[in-house]
Amino acid sequence: MSRIIIQSKLKKFCTSIFKKLGMDYEKAKDTSEVLVEADMMGHSTHGVRLLPLYIKDIEAGNMNITGNQTIINDTGSCITIDGEKLPGIWLTKRGLKLSSERAKIHGVSTVLIKNSHHNGALVAYLLPIVEQGLVPMIKCSVPSSATVAPFGGTKALLTPDPMALAFPTNYEPVLIDISASITTNNMIADKIVKKEMFDFNCLLTRDGIPTNDPKEVFENDGTVMPLGGLEYGHKGFGLALGIEALSQGLSGSGRSRKLKSMNLSIYIQVIDPEAFAGLKAFKNEMSFLYNECVNNPPINKNSKVRMPGQKALLNRKEAIQNGIKFSKQTLMTLDDISRKFDLVFL
Amino acid sequence: MSRIIIQSKLKKFCTSIFKKLGMDYEKAKDTSEVLVEADMMGHSTHGVRLLPLYIKDIEAGNMNITGNQTIINDTGSCITIDGEKLPGIWLTKRGLKLSSERAKIHGVSTVLIKNSHHNGALVAYLLPIVEQGLVPMIKCSVPSSATVAPFGGTKALLTPDPMALAFPTNYEPVLIDISASITTNNMIADKIVKKEMFDFNCLLTRDGIPTNDPKEVFENDGTVMPLGGLEYGHKGFGLALGIEALSQGLSGSGRSRKLKSMNLSIYIQVIDPEAFAGLKAFKNEMSFLYNECVNNPPINKNSKVRMPGQKALLNRKEAIQNGIKFSKQTLMTLDDISRKFDLVFL
Questions:
Q1: Chain-chain contact of B276 with A306 (C-beta, under 8 angstroms)
Q2: CB contact (8 A) between residue B252 and residue A276
Q3: Smallest Cα–Cα separation from B102: which of A106, A269, A247, A112?
Q4: pLDDT digit string (tens) for B218-254?
């Protein structure tokens, strides 16, 4: 029931839809590229499956599709931007590019973006930065949304709060993309569509009882457990607070604003190892560590230790050669959009 | 069997011991202060309980006690330091002070320290920095030690890899200090001394079987599980790799050096919110979040949601008023040291 789609055709299809909706060309191209990149890496929960959400928000006026961001503060290495509800992927890509340029001058550069629309999968941005020998970091939170309760609480307050970090080695780069909660909102949505339960209790009912039923969160005021669950969830709660402080505190855009439509605060930092002990020493140490990890005697003899991003890079290589394989649900979504916009995607 | 000790007397006692061993005065004073500060905050695993370890390493020549650190690279906002195996607490305190001064000029300042001796509890450093309206971060790893296996592996390779972050609010500051593993080496040592088991399986035997017996790690080649355990330990593994990359990669001092005696790589970053949307906006947003957290309806009606650091700050206040209460084990340790150095501590 699945079908293979060539990535270049899919990017063109997505770009055409965004253009048809009136989006500026660069914004349409960037948004399409990063959504398809997520699918290529196998992160299908954050790929073109999100198109209907983006289309809906454009039509409702919750995502601005033309015009420019506003620079609020620029000290050279520290930049604060108002994203003006423009496409989050375009904003994040630009933020990373700016931060990388400035990191090469200042060693470390930090970019804060407030009022951004959704920005997809963080892992999908890292490769072009890390290939320049830089260390990119992204930490996001969504002050307009809440699905995670503070540790010990029952009412949704925080977001899954993802964070990504990538670093170069003499082999493949390591691409880390994790959240401060056990699972994410898009994973929950995906499970509901597929009528699946989670493998273990990573959610709480609104009364604080552990559950693996994704519907409890979206339909019954349940919450997602922070990393560490009931046993040591104070750690995930701490991680989340750190991410909310860096993204919402530094940008000055947080939950006190009681925002209604999709609105992200994004913290970006890029580090140039040359400003410290040098890229060569960095890569040598991290290559040693990489080797020691993948050659570590495994618990299960048939599954070697895998580095973060290793599977995503393998999926990406396969997608470039053979196209992307989509689930029946996503194909139906693409068909619906294709009909609605009178645009053929294959 | 416990006894109350006045913190000022304990600091004097520790300083005298370090001085008797030949340590420079400032190093002795700083080391004593941070060890006692950990005890005051209730982090007794990283308090004066560590004295015998420090004394042993001084006597063995593994910790240098006089002389200076070497600046390898100083770009203004990015500083790389060789700690020359000097006391890690003194190095970390100085690094944070330098980073804070530079953050006020550059907005963000990053300090890397390699070849540091042990630096105690990260939470014990944060208060003087956050009280200046700054956001301090510390991430450490110990290339000379290994107790955590990569996710899916069985051989110790990584360290618990702690990270700390603090931020100011209009109320009390939030002090986060967590590790990328479920538990820490000092917690394991403490459980062994107290002949206790962990409440749940947070360790693996050398064959990769979950266990709660602390002795499996120190006596039987077992390992500590990364944050997330068997179910989602890839998240803790990712966190650990990020911390090792920032501390060991950027300082150029990692596991390839096959160091034998206690040797830390430390990443310090201090952020000045004034370089972004401003301290006032930062504190307002974080105060709103603070309030929403502590007033969240709790799972258990008798235990309100607690912010990271809240208990530590309460313990600290109590210790200042009434002294520190020590366990029988720590009191015996202090008595032994008191006799050995012919110094009375009460």
A1: no
A2: yes
A3: A106
A4: 999 999 999 999 999 999 999 999 999 999 999 999 9
Helical residues (DSSP H) of chain A, grouped into ranges: 7-20, 25-40, 51-59, 88-106, 127-130, 185-193, 215-219, 229-244, 250-251, 279-294, 310-322, 328-340
Query: Of the candidates B152, B182, B300, which has its C-beta nearest A298's C-beta?
Result: B152
Residues above pLDDT 70, as percent of chain B? 99
Contacts B251 to A, Cβ<8 Å = 276-277
Q: Are B150 and B237 in contact (CB under 8 A)?
A: yes
Domains in chain B, ordered, with CATH?
A: 3-281 (3.30.1370.60)
pLDDT score of B190: 87
Measured CA to CA, the distance from residue A114 to residue A95 in angstroms comes to 11
Q: Which two three-digit tokens encode residue B137?
A: 């971060």
ipTM for the whole complex: 0.97
Residue type, A161: D
Strand order in the sheet with A264-271: A70-74, A78-82, A108-116, A264-271, A135-141, A162-167, A174-179
**CA nearest to A1, candidates A345, A335, A331:** A331
Residue B137 sits at φ, ψ, to 5 deg, of: -135, 140
**Interatomic CA distance for residues B10 and A185, integer angstroms:** 50
Rounded CA gap, A109 and A255, in Å? Answer: 26
The pLDDT tens digits of the residues spanning A51-85 come to: 999 999 999 999 999 999 999 999 999 999 999 99
Chain B residues with beta carbon closer than 8 angstroms to that of A275: 73, 75, 78
B13 pLDDT higher than 70 = yes
Residues contacting residue A278 through CB under 8 Å, at least 6 positions apart:
B252
Chain A residues near residue B176 by CB distance under 8 angstroms: 238-239, 241-242
| Tens-digit pLDDT profile for residues A112-168 | 999 999 999 999 999 999 999 999 999 999 999 999 999 999 999 999 999 999 999
Contact B87, B4 (CB under 8 A): no
B335 token code pair: 């008595």
- Rounded distance between C-alpha atoms, residue A148 and residue A154, angstroms: 9
Structure tokens at B185: 């080496």
CA A109 vs. chain centroid, Å, equals 20
pTM across the whole model: 0.97
Which of B82, B211, B289 has the most A C-beta neighbours within 10 Å, making it the best mutation to test the interface with A?
Answer: B289
Residue A183, phi-psi category: left (phi > 0), alpha (psi -120 to 50), beta (remainder): beta
Paired strand residues for A298 = B153
Round to whole Å and give the CA distance between A162 and B201.
27
